[in-house]
Specification:
508 residues; mainly alpha; 21 helices; 2 strands; 73% helix
């Protein structure tokens, strides 16, 4: 079996194994889950190390920058295959996925409700997420895309709190509608290709619908809308706050840290290189959508009293920067600036996954202790839970883009690339986006003041410091954000070649 296939399907095999041995105790189930995630992460690290050299089959990148490639017949009548591989775009997201699922497994050591089903469902989700980021066939991509919706629906409905059934249903209906719209776009690409194919490598080499402005615009609209719902961007974001508020902490971490990236990843992997003419033509529409998401997400987050809803709206803000960056890559400005913008967008995907995943786990600590996310009911937590408070401080500063942490590296590249990619209009847009950073800084400082500092609140006495499992899950995510903020070259060296390739495909 190809190593990449092993990485993808190992979690699913372990999930099935949990039910094949019905007498396993809850602690054994979770320890098995942790070991499976740790082995999967080790395999992804091995993929990363072997990506640099080789012919693309048993190690390093081939002529398309794709390594560990497998292409098997699946549905030959429509030229759809089990085609997988990794490059500088997918590899960081595979690593992020493996790491964040491991963190959620460790965080769940204290889980007591339906432990076997909980672990099996997360292992299933891990396979689905890894499969999507490795997929090089549109139909295969769509299968994993849809299965992720099903898995998260059951996580929210089964282990959430509050109005979890309603939130799970809203999440499912919104995102399933987005997947159907996305499928229409994929069918448009298939019909426009000569010969017809769902193979993403072939569609990138020879973009369909070139010279057909109307059909290409419709295909981009379908793909863009489907991915925008998943990202989510304004105005397709309304499913996100209730889903996050009522999901369990580990579910929120995966939803924000991994599943939102399926939308932004799709923009870079599918929309930009496969309909490049339409992407250039409507670049300003994409830029405006991104800019609105940046400002709206920050402003609405600032108004929140519920900690989880605040973090959820900052995700709208941070995803908006990615959309802004990939939109700017379609302008006719300097090629280096556009490449920098795309590199920043991919770096932001990784940074947001690490930092926001950690923040949602930290929010879960509040709810685990006092069953409330209301910031007004806390205060002075730093005096009773110093280690926990330290993690919150690092997470907040990383999210607001403080230098020395990954958020700064990502946002600096995005803003520099955006401002350098066009004329006066894009300079104004980039300058306006800086307001989003200022508002985000204000809202996180407000969060720290209301929860960690000042006089004790009514629930402060119930907050105890992090347990070992919670600290072991959260601290490595923030530590890696610090490593990227100080020494990002190991990540940027992987991303930059594929960023240059994507920009060259859009510019052709």
């Amino acid at each position: 079996m190809n190593v990449l296939s092993l990485v993808i399907f190992l979690p699913l095999a372990v999930a099935l194994g949990l039910y094949a041995v019905p007498r396993l105790g809850d602690r054994t189930v979770i320890r098995t889950w942790i070991v499976a995630c740790a082995v999967d992460l080790a395999l992804v690290i091995a993929l990363w190390i072997g990506h640099e050299t080789g012919d693309g089959t048993d190690g390093g990148a081939g002529v398309d920058g794709i390594s560990y490639e497998t292409n098997l017949r699946w549905i030959p009548s429509v030229r759809a295959g089990y085609h997988i591989g990794v490059d500088g775009l997918s590899l960081p997201l595979l690593a992020l996925t493996a790491l964040l699922f491991l963190a959620c497994a460790v965080y769940s050591l204290r889980q007591t409700q339906q432990v076997r089903a909980f672990a099996a469902l997360f292992l299933f989700l891990q396979t689905v997420c890894l499969g999507l980021f490795a997929a090089l066939d549109l139909l295969l991509f769509f299968v994993f895309f849809d299965l992720s919706i099903v898995g998260m629906y059951f996580v929210i409905a089964g282990w959430g709190h509050g109005d979890r059934t309603r939130s799970a249903l809203k999440f499912f209906l919104y995102t399933f509608l987005g997947s159907l719209i996305l499928l229409l776009g994929f069918i448009g690409l298939y019909l426009g290709a000569e010969p017809h194919t769902f193979d993403m490598v072939e569609l990138t080499r020879t973009p369909p619908l070139s010279g057909s402005a109307g059909p290409a615009a419709l295909v981009l609209l379908a793909i863009g809308a489907g991915l925008a719902i998943k990202t989510p961007t304004v105005p397709f974001h309304t499913w996100l706050p209730p889903a996050h508020t009522d999901a369990p902490a580990a579910g929120s971490a995966i939803l924000a840290g991994i599943m939102l990236k399926m939308g932004t990843y799709g923009f870079v992997r599918i929309a930009m290189p496969m309909v490049p003419d339409a992407w250039r033509r409507y670049a300003w529409v994409i830029i405006i959508v991104g800019l609105v998401s940046v400002l709206y997400g920050a402003l609405v987050a600032f108004a929140q009293e519920d900690l989880k809803r605040l973090i959820a709206y900052t995700s709208v803000n941070h995803m908006g920067y990615i959309v802004l960056a990939v939109g700017a890559a379609g302008l006719a400005g300097g090629i280096d600036a556009r490449r920098l913008a795309v590199t920043g967008a991919v770096t932001q995907m990784v940074s947001h996954g690490l930092v926001t995943g950690a923040l949602f786990l930290l929010a879960g600590v509040f709810n685990d202790r006092a069953q409330s996310y209301d910031m007004g009911r806390y205060g002075g937590v730093a005096r009773v839970a110093p280690a926990f408070s330290g993690l919150v401080v690092v997470g907040a500063f990383a999210s607001l883009g403080l230098p020395g942490l990954s958020g700064f590296i990502a946002e600096f590249q995005i803003l520099t690339g955006v401002i350098g990619s066009g004329g006066a209009g894009i300079v104004v847009a980039g300058g306006t986006a800086i307001l989003g950073i200022l508002i985000t800084a204000a809202l996180f400082l407000r969060l720290l003041h209301r929860t960690l500092l000042g006089p004790s609140g009514e629930l402060t006495a119930r907050v105890t410091d992090t347990h070992r499992s919670e600290f072991a899950a959260i601290a490595p995510l923030l530590a890696l954000s610090l490593v990227i903020g100080i020494a990002p070259r190991f990540l940027l060296d992987v991303i930059e070649p594929v960023s240059a390739l994507v920009v060259s495909l859009v510019a052709r």
